[in-house]
Amino acid sequence: xxTKDSNHIKLLTANWELLQNSLKTxxxxxxKAQTIGQKEEYTFEEMEAFDSLTSxxxxxxxxxxxxxxxxxxxLLHEDKMPLIDILNKAEKLEIIHSADAMLEIRDIRNQxxxxxxxxxxxxxxxxxxxLTHKLEDNINICQAFLLTRNWIN
Length: 153
What we know:
- With 153 residues, the protein is mainly α.
- The chain has one domain (3-148): Four Helix Bundle (Hemerythrin (Met), subunit A), CATH 1.20.120.330.
- Helix content is 80%, strand content 0%.
- The longest helix is centred in the first third of the chain and has 34 residues, at 3-36.
- The two termini are 18 Å apart.
């Protein structure tokens, strides 16, 4: 293993730990949002819980896609390519479960990032909850792949 690969593995390991911590807090926010449920009007605290959920979802998906998947791609010595192509190939290599799900996650993440109306965020919450499970499924498949390569513990 060369120095560049060794550095990528260190980076991958650090980012994997960051992802695990992010995923843990995301799951807690999902539980809190599910407890709130859907209703006509929300309190300020409930809206804050939704805002926290969407923020944590965005962070976890960014860590996975921009840090884990991209670093993994470097370790595999694959050509640089657009994210959609990386995800399609990663699905074929069984690094992720579903490229389509990851693209849907990315789309919701972008909607969250560009949404400034609080009511719109609350409309995204059911999708975020459902996609959190898909994100977790993809992370679990990736974890299995990384463990077979001994790139994470």
